[in-house]
Amino acid sequence: MKKFLLLCSACALVGLATEPSLNAAENPKSKSTTEHSQKAQRVSCEALDPDAPGLQCALAWLRMMDGRDYRQAWIAASDYLQQHYTLERWQRFLNSWRPELGTIKSREMTYSDYCCNVKGLPKGQYLVVYYKTSFECYGPTCEKLVLRCEWDCACEARWKVARYCVE
Fold first, then answer.
1. pLDDT tens column, 105-157
2. Does residue 33 lie within any of the structural domains?
3. Is residue 105 part of a domain?
4. What is the span of the domain harbouring residue 84?
């Protein structure tokens, strides 16, 4: 239990533990319309195609994390994450707690949500994904990823991780 609390504290210190929640519309008159559209955007795991580009990106990125290739995970992450965390800070932060979890035993997607606004992140297109994950040295946990749709120089959309946390 002590490791769990330390882990959550570490995530909170660097701003990664923020619950992905949708921001309310600024116009109070459009509140009911906004609430309806937000509810309509929620997607159950069964409804998502496992080959969807965002989900494939999430799994590929998690494989980098599982292999402790934090440098490559940072390179593959969103511009937002790279602007807020230098490579050195990212590696130092992850090396301070992630190896203690041990190797991955299982990972199952439990939740996903496409949305336009995630608290604490700039407006954009996002995919929020939760996984129930078990590690060798740590029981069942929840891995949370927030992926941001970014456009490359060839005007193609790419899903990239903007936030990651283990609880």
1. 999 999 998 998 899 999 999 999 999 999 999 889 999 999 999 987 777 88
2. no
3. yes
4. 2-14+41-166
What does the alpha-carbon distance between residue 110 and residue 128 come to, in Å, rounded to a whole number?
11
Q: What 3-state DSSP class applies to 150? A: strand
- For residue range 30-89, what is the model confidence (pLDDT) as tens digits? 333 333 333 334 444 445 566 688 999 999 999 999 999 999 999 999 999 999 999 999
Nearby residues of 152 by Cβ (< 8 Å), 6 or more positions away:
158
Q: What are phi and psi of 53, to 5 degrees?
A: -55, -40
Q: pTM of the predicted model, to two decimals?
A: 0.71
Instruction: Please say whether the dihedral angle defined by the alpha carbons of residues 146, 150, 156 and 160, taken in this order, is positive or negative.
Output: negative
Closest CA to 116 of 100, 128, 101: 128
Instruction: Report the C-alpha gap between 65 and 94 in whole angstroms.
Output: 9
